[in-house]
Amino acid sequence: MRKTDALTILGVMCGVAAIILAIEMGGDLKMFINIPSVLITVVGSFSAILIHFGIEEIRNVFAVTGHAFRAPDWKPWELIGLLTDLARKARREGLLALEDDINRVEDPFFQKGLRMVVDAIDAEIIREVLETDIEFTEERHQRGQRVYRAWAGLAPAFGMIGTLIGLIQMLANLNDPDALGPGMAVALITTFYGSIMANLLFTPLAGKLALRGEEEMLVRRLILEGLISIQSGMNPRLLEEKLKSFLPPKVREAARSEARSAVGEEARRPAF
Prior knowledge:
- The structure is a single chain.
- The longest helix has about 50 residues, at about 180-230.
- The radius of gyration is 27 Å and the shape is elongated.
- The chain starts with a strand and ends with a helix.
- It is built from nine helices and two strands.
- Helix 4 (about 75-95) packs parallel to helix 7.
- It has a two-stranded antiparallel ribbon with strand order 1-2.
- The chain has helices spanning about 5-25, 35-50, 55-70, 75-95, 110-120, 125-170, 180-230, 235-245, 250-270, and strands at about 1-5, 70.
- By secondary structure, it is mainly alpha-helical.
């Protein structure tokens, strides 16, 4: 389950709005709209990306881009609570009793690991299979980041190429002094486009994808350790404390606050 990442959308919208507003306050927005400049910077830099990467990496980047705009809707304390419940059930009724819980989880990684636990697969094999899954998922995330980081480097370079083209065309018409100023302005637009693409879009997208990748890897490692501990028969309270150590202090405190709120609401609830 994923939810829309309003922060990413807000950042892009605010950035674009600020630039447009600043241009409008200082002059005419139409001066900054130039189709040949778009062709050089956008199409040109994308063509270089096609040369630099393989078709699978290009397909992958479009697939993972959605992760920058849709954050995973997971609450770590709820995940820890679920794993602790499974540990209690396994100690009380045995690992086979967890078969009914496989469909309780929506995450395919969690389902796969839990199914192996129910099937009494050796713990080392479970760890090896799940760690391989984590490793290749991380690699897919890094491929998407590499494409955007490369694009962020190429876009300003193509902006400079566009500027050089504009300057050459301008110098070829030196016999018309009135055209020098507008020609220089047009030549610089490609540099402007390249800088916008690199600094407002591609570099921040690569950064957000890296953050999403780190979050997903944390969740997967938490699930892995939880399942291995359940199979080993670890005490549920010890399991809970062990899994909490995966979380940053602020997240642990948020979990405690939410737990206290839940207890307070339960206490205030009238008895029937």
